[in-house]
Amino acid sequence: MIVVTGATGNVGRPLTQALVEAGEQVTAVSRHATAVDGIRHVVADLAEPASLAPVLDGAKALFLLLSGNLHAPDSRPADLVDLAVARGVRRVVLLSSQGVSTRPLGPTRVAMRALEDAVRASGLDWAVVRPGGFASNAFAWAESVRTRGMVAAPFGDVGVPVVDPADIGEVAAACLLDDRHNGGVYELTGPEVISPRRQAEAIATALGSPVRFHELTRAEAKAQMTRFVPAELADDTLDIISAPNPDELRISPDVQRVLGRAPRPFSDWVARNVAAFR
How far apart are the first and last CA of the chain? Predict the structure, then answer.
């Protein structure tokens, strides 16, 4: 049995689907009760590791995804790794961040590096996936596109190679299932550098109707982001998307290496999710 944390999210859903299609028994874990297509679902809060303990009994592998509050300075996500060891889990795949390698001194990146180190030192089989920006961050624009035909974002003409969460999920599934990926660290990007303005154009194309672009200031963007994530994580993210360095602009070959195909472009993500913007 494989335990997937964050199973109802943008990465967890395609990961769970990939594991089920591979014939695996899956336990989906999230903080809120949600139906997950007939799969066993358990409510647990990773900020309270004890709530996850019974879920891990009998599990052979764990996919570990940290929610926003587990990036806070006073959190102890390494306790989850210790719990997995104590409960007999044999493999852990960690969803980390590209910023661990490209911005190693950012406050949240230091904490994530420490968690990566805890995974490496655990004695378990392990793999780490480090995505860059998610294509699904565009869901933040859905309401404004539906009601006002507008995308509002900072740094409108600064692009990064955003990655489709379905690609992240499929890479994570391969790491959970295939021994060849033990000890692997995979940086995941999309196939092209794409700016927020061009993402708005892709949404307009998929809708068949105009979508105008409004550029936010950094302060406005941070105020929106901190409704959902700690201020340190918001600042780290804004630092990257305002002035990506050469490593953050690089198109990684790792999706191709693991899955044997090119990563999906942003337009594919929009086509699959266009109903959210109508």
Answer: 38
The alpha carbon of residue 228 and the mean position of all alpha carbons in its chain are separated, in whole angstroms, by 15
Neighbours of 180 (CB within 10 A): 11
Reported pTM: 0.93
- Give the number of C-alpha atoms closer than 13 A to the C-alpha of residue 126, restricted to the C-beta side: 19
Structure tokens at 232: 């340190």
Cβ 260 vs Cβ 248: under 8 Å: no
Q: What is the pLDDT of residues 6-63, one digit of tens each?
A: 998 999 999 999 999 999 999 999 887 776 667 888 888 887 888 889 999 999 999 9
The candidate with the shortest Cα–Cα distance to 92, out of 69, 115, 64, 114, is: 64
Question: Which of 91, 271, 55 lies closest to 176 in space, CA to CA?
Answer: 91
Strand ranges (DSSP E) for 6-54? 26-30, 40-43
CA dist 265 and 276 (Å) reads: 18
